[in-house]
Design a protein that fits this description.
Order of helices and strands: HHHHHHHHH
Helix content: 55-70%
Distance between the termini: 21 Å
Largest sheet: none
Structural class: mainly alpha
Length: 181
């Protein structure tokens, strides 16, 4: 999240310039018919001055970068949590069903993703997964597999990701946290 905020702060001038462009387009779209001409002239001047990018005020990708940074942070947090579980629950069979199921099912899914995971990573996934069923060695969860997500990170999708780690009713718990009230 810190990375996302730094990205936003570093690009504030660009964002502000693009928001001004957005204001011109919003004014143009909402103007009564009699007032379109002066606004259209102002819009044409903006386009000529700033180029074609003025037509597509996309905040210069800053919003996309913030969302991507949040998704990366979420993935990193899930991977870190999965990495810490063996120190908390030493035996794989003692993990909640949702964690074991996610580890096994999503490791299988990750093994089919040859573009996303290189060969050596997929080989590590197989070693880790087989190690989960061998009591003689400490198990290692495939956090990257557990964190797999191909959808936009909505609150429902975030809930699904957290439930893979047996974290349920996260929104209810957060709602009752005194610091967030």
């Amino acid at each position: 999240m810190q990375t996302a905020l730094y990205t936003l702060l570093a690009r504030l001038a660009t964002i502000e310039r693009n928001v001004k462009r957005t204001d011109v387009l919003v004014e143009f779209a909402s103007a009564p018919p009699g007032q379109l001409n002066p606004i259209a002239k102002q819009l044409r001047r903006t386009i000529r001055r700033d180029g074609q990018a003025a037509i597509q005020p996309n905040l210069d990708g800053s919003l996309l970068l913030i969302c991507a940074a949040f998704e990366q942070y979420t993935s990193d947090a899930i991977i870190a949590f999965a990495g810490q579980l063996p120190t908390q629950v030493p035996h794989y069979v003692d993990l909640p069903d949702s964690i074991r199921s996610a580890n096994e099912r999503l490791t299988g899914e990750a093994l089919t993703m040859t573009r996303r995971f290189p060969e050596f990573t997929r080989q590590r996934f197989v070693r880790n997964l087989t190690g989960c069923f061998d009591d003689d060695v400490p198990y290692i969860l495939n956090g990257e597999a557990i964190a797999l997500n191909e959808h936009n990170l909505t609150s429902g999708e975030l809930k699904t990701l957290l439930e893979r780690l047996a974290i349920k009713d996260v929104w209810d718990r957060l709602h009752h946290t005194p610091a967030l009230k």
